[in-house]
Design brief:
alpha/beta, 12 helices, 48% helix
Length: 286
């Protein structure tokens, strides 16, 4: 078992990565508009989601080299996007090592995972957050962060969501306490957009999303959120993070305790279809 105390977060703008992605986002938007295409049309021809196009244009998601190749061709960019591919590859390589020390072991395990199981009782987990929701989370953090650091934190968090685009895809399950879905972090508009995004992700074949109702009389764990990961070729590990104290747990007996808890939580939560129905009702769409 390894225990690491959180160190002060080091701004990562110094390597220019955030500026690179924001500049690329502006170029993509400029070329798209010059070609007379809507975001959904560019998404269709490059085989990505419309929400991903929006996030890349705002500089909060990383444009992958394969996307830049396809977009340059589709938008008649004449190499404007392709020329940035070496810098993007280098930036992606740097981003794998720029997490704080206390988080680095987990980030590496997550990126290599074949299975990920997440129980959250305070907020929507980072892998499921919209840019606006993530920005609201970082804006409210104490001590306060400056605006540029907030935008970089958002970009770094959303870049982890590229795990959903891997193939073969990992297996994902998430259990969220009902109160997490009721708390309007960032305001009503941000909250509703976040709920819709959960519906979108919950519809993926690789994702099972469940809600633990607040009215359940029995609960196997009241000690906080946790994550179970199975890195490729390795045994399952557990991860917890409370008030800046992170633990990556590798002892098989300790991990087994978390696995037992998670199994009980899933058995007492709503089924995935029921959970999505509940979210739709929250949105007033059922």
């Amino acid at each position: 078992m390894s225990v690491r105390e959180e160190q002060p977060e080091r701004p990562v703008e110094a390597d220019g990565t955030a500026h690179l992605f924001r500049a690329l986002g502006k170029q993509i938007k400029l070329l798209r508009e010059a070609a007379g295409l809507h975001q959904r049309e560019l998404a269709a021809v490059t085989h990505v989601g419309e929400s991903l196009i929006s996030s890349m244009e705002r500089g909060v998601r990383t444009p992958q080299p394969e996307f830049l190749e396809a977009a340059d061709e589709a938008l008649d960019g004449r190499g404007m996007l392709k020329v940035a591919i070496p810098e993007v590859r280098a930036a992606l390589s740097r981003s794998r090592t720029r997490h704080p020390d206390w988080f680095r072991d987990y980030a590496k395990a997550e990126a290599e995972s074949t299975q990920l199981h997440d129980y959250s009782n305070q907020a929507v987990p980072g892998l499921l957050q919209t840019p606006e929701y993530a920005r609201a989370i970082f804006t409210q953090r104490r001590p306060l962060l400056d605006e540029e650091t907030i935008e970089t934190r958002v970009a770094d968090r959303l870049s982890r969501q590229q795990i959903f685009e891997r193939w073969p895809a990992p297996t994902f399950t998430f259990v969220l306490e009902e109160v997490v879905l009721q708390r309007p972090i960032g305001g009503r508009a941000v909250h509703r957009a976040q709920l819709r995004y959960l519906l979108e992700l919950g519809a993926l074949r690789t994702v099972e999303l469940q809600v633990m109702p607040t009215d359940r009389e029995e609960h196997p764990t009241m000690g906080g959120s946790f994550i179970l990961l199975t890195p490729k070729g390795r045994h399952q590990v557990a991860y917890t993070e409370i008030y800046g104290h992170a633990r990556l747990i590798t002892d098989p007996e300790d991990v087994g305790v978390f696995a037992d808890r998670y199994g009980i939580i899933r058995s007492r939560a709503l089924r995935p279809s029921e959970s999505l129905d509940l979210i739709e009702k929250m949105l007033g769409e059922r």
